[in-house]
Amino acid sequence: MSSPISANASAAPAWRQFPFFDAVPVKDVHDLASPPEIFKSAMEISIMAPSTSGVLVADIHGSIHLLDKDFETVTSWLAHVGGRVTHMAEQRGILITLGEEDAVKHPLLKIWELGRIDQKTGAPNLLRSVKVQHTQRPHPVSTVALSASLSHLAVGLGDGTVLLYRHLDQSLFSGSTSLTSVPKPRVIHESPAEPTTGLGFREPGTGKDDSSPNLYLFIVTTNRVLCYQASGKGSGGSPSVVHEVGCGLGCATMDWKKRDVIVAREEAIYMCGTEGRGQCYAYEGSKSSVHTHLNYLVIVSPPFAPSASAASATVRNFVARSNTANTTDITKVTVFDPENKFVAYTSTFTEGIREVISQWGNVYILSNDGNLICLQEKPTAAKLDMMYQKGQYLLALNVAKTQRLDESSVADIHRQYGDHLYGKSDYDGAMQQYLQTLGYLQASYVIRKFLDAQRIHNLVTYLQELHSVGLANSDHTTLLLNTYTKLKDVSRLDSFIKTESRRTSTLDGEKDELPFDLDTAIRVCRQAGYFEHASYLAKKYERHEDYLRIQIEDAANYKDALSYLRQLGSEAAEANLARYGRAMLESLPDETTQLLIGLCTSTGPLSADSDERPSSARQPSPNTGASYLSYLALNRTTAAPPTVSSDNAGTVTPSASTIKAREQPSRRDSGVFEGSDSRTSTPGPERGPTLSKLMLPTPVKRPSPRLYFAHFVDHLDKFVVFLETVALKRWGQTVDESQIQSVPTVIEPPADEDVDKQDQVAVWNTLLELYLSLPSADSPGNNGQSNSLRDKALLVLKSSKIPYDSTHALILCSTQQYTPGLLLLWEKMGMYEEVLRFWMDKDKEGVSSEASGQVIKCLDQYGPANRHLYPLVLRFLTSTPALLSRHASDLGRILDYIDNEKIMPPLGVIQVLSRNGVASVGLVKQWLLTRIKESREEVQTDKQLTDSYRMETKTKLKQVDELSDPERPRVFHVTRCSSCGGQLDLPSVHFMCNHSYHQRCLADHDTECPNCARANGVIREIRRNNERLADQHDLFLSDVKESGFDAIASAYGRSVLNASRPVDA
């Protein structure tokens, strides 16, 4: 029978329609031509319900079937004997069924645990089974609702009564095995004239503010919508009316967010919340049921007769396609998106609709003829393409928000929308869309579209926003600034470069980085001639190099640059002076030199007068502990490591040890020291041990003077001043006696002593080179004393406290032909042969008559520790007759010393003297006779020793032959025991070494003479060691390199070079 509803009444409003769902018939996995087997008797199916385990299907015979994704039966059981299942609800694996049984006149409530199967019956475990009864008269169940936490169950009856079971979860999981152990239901609503048509729970935390902690129950009747607070403070009262319009059975359901209840009536669809009615959607026509699927609302109409004049295009299309349209009733199914107000799917069914469920992300529609249709939603990309084709970009954005797409996908929609508006020449609107793509769309994609001069203002807007969110790179900054300069918009340029960071950290509120690339901004402003803006940025954001580059290279404002360098402090000025120091010295040599001195010596701020102030002014006054600091400084010099002189310039002393201490501490200094433990002295702040700890100088880090050496290449006079002042103020080192009073009282220890030592060596090496290479001139400021630069160089070389590289100094003196320095360095470096050869050369040149005397003097001074000098002097003295005649007595003395100290063998002396005809035999006759006599005596002694060794060896060999001859008997004449000394009697033991013992005096199994055992053991151990050494070739070779023939002779004597022989047992 068709419903008496006109075709126009069932038509949908003129909303936008999109085919977002595809209808796919579901077939049986075993018979692809038929629907699933269980739906072939569709008229016997009483209810279908989704669950977390699968689809639940109940029939009119009381059985329940659990289906999988292929709609194959996983489990089936008889839930209600002799009756039918009317309602089902499932949460968290717990199934609530309400049904009728023939033996019971009231409806039965049963609770099943789907996850546990009873092994006897094969059915899920039955937890509870009770009757739904509040009066003696039975009433059918009209609707049921179960909270997500299983804490509340609401049952609506046909007489308008609503029963609420509270704390159901506690009852189920309490451990009770009683099937009737269910909380007593509470009647929360009664209206005999208004049957209950719908129930639904609004879960906690699903309100508009997502923070409501209470659980609410919506009650829908045929005339009203009520709200009941089920939990929380204020619960248990009477339901409040939220809307005066109700609906029929099956036309009420909760929305997909479980926040509001949806009430479907003929004229419209209403959304009702806890505070009252919400939005209303005009959708005219009768509704037999409504269902939710994700964010969609599925509306099913009752059967009606189609008409070619119907307002619905779906109905008209059905009439046009069907030949039996006039005799067939149809049911219309519409999938509606209430939030975005469009129809996602609509279709007609000729056999009527049995059930509609939402499961596994799809909508399943069961018709009365047993066919199962699956509505599959199209991919998001396909849906967006459909909306793009119809120009519905705003709708696409709303859909993306509803379906919670990621930000990159939303940005792509904005891009598509922007391209659409750009194609329509709506550049302002397109730019607004492109601004929403920042961070996801390549900026070059947008920039290329707006490079035309007519759209440059839109480009400025985009670039400014790009900078404000911190996504701009240097190219974007360049483009924006060039745009400003092209437009001559100085005000906007000022506003841009003077803009503070608009982004702040959410944690501490501190400002984030600038919204533009600072380096690029400075560079572009300089290139465009906006030096004021460039210097403003550089100075404000402490880009010291850029600021100095602008002042020096662009503006040539050296005084301002010098003043700025003083304000930077040591760390910032260090790097900048390394770059711009040469240019500063060209324009302001004196001021720049003083600034560099202050930078390398001062630990405080570089004020304008700090470099020119005398060091005494920086010393603490006597009444503030100066004497105590002086005492500390002097004592640090004694506790420091030894000062490195030019002899070992590779390791330089710490700066504290290079202080040139005064001759005697002042009485004030000594008084502090002596009175530190005195009880009668007045306690002062400098005497306390706590103050001494506080006033100890801490390590400081100062820039290396080597960084600035190259800047003085054209200002060598200033270079000397710089190096001398740095050495004096930083390390207390000077060669000028008049500047001793200017040595700082306290020298701060460096942070890195190794680097500081290298700096000291580099400074004095450079100073030494300048002293030797610059023209000799009087140095000013020495109290009238004139010391040439070369005299200063000699003072440096003589000093034992000034560190310098001796090799470097030697090369300098040789290059500059500075003879005093060469001699001094040769002596310090132990190059005494060079000193002797120098005087020998002088004697050959005839420059000095005292040269040969200097040779003898140097030999007397250095010869005892350097014996190789004596052969050299012998050759020199016998080189010419004149030398030999002047130093005949010296020659005899030298020969006696050579003989006494065994420096040369006599043959070597003879070879040296006989190399030319200067020295005669008569000159050394007596010395030769003495040497020959001594040699003969040594030869005779050696012969006697050789003969004795031969006799002893012959005796030993004879004894060995006797012992090793088995045919020659051995007669023992010993009469006393070698151990106890008693008269020898039998039994006795005789050894071949002529030792005899009582048998009782020997240990058991002792086969070796006790008296000779130790000596024999030592010999065996020596032999074993020699055999082991025979394989250690590296050790033997190193011994040969060190001792020569003595090592080889010793190896032969120890049988190391002989073939190995077995060790005697």
UniProtKB/TrEMBL annotation:
<keyword id="KW-0653">Protein transport</keyword>
<comment type="similarity">
    <text>Belongs to the VPS11 family.</text>
</comment>
<dbReference type="GO" id="GO:0030674">
    <property type="term" value="F:protein-macromolecule adaptor activity"/>
</dbReference>
<feature type="compositionally biased region" description="Polar residues">
    <location>
        <begin position="640"/>
        <end position="658"/>
    </location>
</feature>
<feature type="domain" description="RING-type">
    <location>
        <begin position="977"/>
        <end position="1012"/>
    </location>
</feature>
<feature type="repeat" description="CHCR">
    <location>
        <begin position="434"/>
        <end position="593"/>
    </location>
</feature>
<feature type="region of interest" description="Disordered">
    <location>
        <begin position="605"/>
        <end position="624"/>
    </location>
</feature>
<keyword id="KW-0472">Membrane</keyword>
<dbReference type="InterPro" id="IPR057308">
    <property type="entry name" value="CHCR_PEP5_VPS11"/>
</dbReference>
<dbReference type="GO" id="GO:0006904">
    <property type="term" value="P:vesicle docking involved in exocytosis"/>
</dbReference>
<dbReference type="InterPro" id="IPR024763">
    <property type="entry name" value="VPS11_C"/>
</dbReference>
<keyword id="KW-0479">Metal-binding</keyword>
<dbReference type="InterPro" id="IPR001841">
    <property type="entry name" value="Znf_RING"/>
</dbReference>
<dbReference type="Pfam" id="PF23341">
    <property type="entry name" value="PEP5_VPS11_N"/>
</dbReference>
<protein>
    <recommendedName>
        <fullName>E3 ubiquitin-protein ligase PEP5</fullName>
        <ecNumber>2.3.2.27</ecNumber>
    </recommendedName>
</protein>
<dbReference type="GO" id="GO:0000329">
    <property type="term" value="C:fungal-type vacuole membrane"/>
</dbReference>
<dbReference type="GO" id="GO:0048284">
    <property type="term" value="P:organelle fusion"/>
</dbReference>
<keyword id="KW-0863">Zinc-finger</keyword>
<dbReference type="InterPro" id="IPR016528">
    <property type="entry name" value="VPS11"/>
</dbReference>
<keyword id="KW-0808">Transferase</keyword>
<dbReference type="GO" id="GO:0033263">
    <property type="term" value="C:CORVET complex"/>
</dbReference>
<dbReference type="GO" id="GO:0006886">
    <property type="term" value="P:intracellular protein transport"/>
</dbReference>
<dbReference type="Pfam" id="PF12451">
    <property type="entry name" value="VPS11_C"/>
</dbReference>
<dbReference type="InterPro" id="IPR057307">
    <property type="entry name" value="PEP5_VPS11_N"/>
</dbReference>
<dbReference type="Pfam" id="PF17122">
    <property type="entry name" value="zf-C3H2C3"/>
</dbReference>
<dbReference type="GO" id="GO:0007033">
    <property type="term" value="P:vacuole organization"/>
</dbReference>
<feature type="compositionally biased region" description="Basic and acidic residues">
    <location>
        <begin position="660"/>
        <end position="671"/>
    </location>
</feature>
<keyword id="KW-0833">Ubl conjugation pathway</keyword>
<dbReference type="InterPro" id="IPR000547">
    <property type="entry name" value="Clathrin_H-chain/VPS_repeat"/>
</dbReference>
<keyword id="KW-0926">Vacuole</keyword>
<keyword id="KW-0862">Zinc</keyword>
<dbReference type="GO" id="GO:0008270">
    <property type="term" value="F:zinc ion binding"/>
</dbReference>
<dbReference type="GO" id="GO:0030897">
    <property type="term" value="C:HOPS complex"/>
</dbReference>
<feature type="region of interest" description="Disordered">
    <location>
        <begin position="188"/>
        <end position="208"/>
    </location>
</feature>
<dbReference type="GO" id="GO:0061630">
    <property type="term" value="F:ubiquitin protein ligase activity"/>
</dbReference>
<dbReference type="Pfam" id="PF23356">
    <property type="entry name" value="TPR_PEP5_VPS11"/>
</dbReference>
<keyword id="KW-0813">Transport</keyword>
<comment type="subunit">
    <text>Component of the homotypic vacuole fusion and vacuole protein sorting (HOPS) complex. Component of the class C core vacuole/endosome tethering (CORVET) complex.</text>
</comment>
<feature type="region of interest" description="Disordered">
    <location>
        <begin position="640"/>
        <end position="697"/>
    </location>
</feature>
<dbReference type="GO" id="GO:0007032">
    <property type="term" value="P:endosome organization"/>
</dbReference>
